[in-house]
Design brief:
Blueprint (H helix, E strand, L loop, with lengths): L4 E6 L3 H11 L3 E6 L2 H7 L8 E4 L8 H9 L9 E5 L4 H10 L3 E4 L4 H16 L3
Parallel strand pairs: 1-2, 1-3, 3-4, 4-5
């Protein structure tokens, strides 16, 4: 049995956070954060998740700023970050690609589709294990 990879899931909406955590917990160890600031606190010290799922629309520090701050931490430079968002404007998706996000997934999303996309990202980034 393979060891579960760890994901950091960041969303200020507690219902969305709980639903996504529930969808992912069978396949991944899920660490949650309810804000960009909390995400950065969780990423303090030596924690390096396999993948970060980041909401865009959050009060205080939005997903774009959080992304930038995470990318400024050297040991996290290779961690794939994808946005999970209710934004459906093409400009936001293009911007996420421009800054280097690995994917942009619109809410609401189906469990099967989310798991498949994450599996593909993990395989591409880390190989088949």
């Amino acid at each position: 049995m393979r060891e579960k990879r760890t994901l950091l899931l960041v969303d200020d909406d507690e219902i969305q956070l709980s639903m996504a955590e529930y969808m992912l917990m069978s396949e991944y160890e899920v660490i949650t954060a309810k804000s960009g600031r909390e995400a950065l606190e969780r990423l303090g010290k030596d924690f390096v998740p396999s993948l970060i799922l980041l909401d865009v629309l959050m009060p205080g520090m939005d997903g774009w700023e959080t992304y930038s701050k995470i990318r400024s931490i050297n040991r996290l430079g290779d961690v794939p970050i994808l946005f999970l968002t209710a934004l459906d404007e093409v400009q936001e998706e293009e911007y996420s690609q421009k800054i280097g996000a690995i994917d942009y997934i619109r809410k609401p999303f189906a469990k099967k589709d989310l798991l498949k996309r994450l599996e593909d990202i993990i395989k591409t980034t880390y190989g088949s294990n």
